[in-house]
Amino acid sequence: MTRVRIDLFSSLDGHTSVGGGPENPMGDDWGPLTTAYVATRTVKERVFGDTSGAGTTGVDDAYAAAFFQGIGAEIMGAAMFGLHSFPDDPEWKGWWGDEPPFGVPVYVLTSTAPRPDVAMQGGTTFRFRDCSVEDVLAEAVAAAGGLDVRVGGGIGTARAFLRAGLVDDLHVAIAPVVLDRGHRVWEDLRGFEHTHRTTIEVAESGTIHVTFTRQDR
Amino acid sequence: MTRVRIDLFSSLDGHTSVGGGPENPMGDDWGPLTTAYVATRTVKERVFGDTSGAGTTGVDDAYAAAFFQGIGAEIMGAAMFGLHSFPDDPEWKGWWGDEPPFGVPVYVLTSTAPRPDVAMQGGTTFRFRDCSVEDVLAEAVAAAGGLDVRVGGGIGTARAFLRAGLVDDLHVAIAPVVLDRGHRVWEDLRGFEHTHRTTIEVAESGTIHVTFTRQDR
Question: Which residue ranges form the domains of chain A, and what is each CATH number?
Answer without folding.
Answer: 4-214 (3.40.430.10)
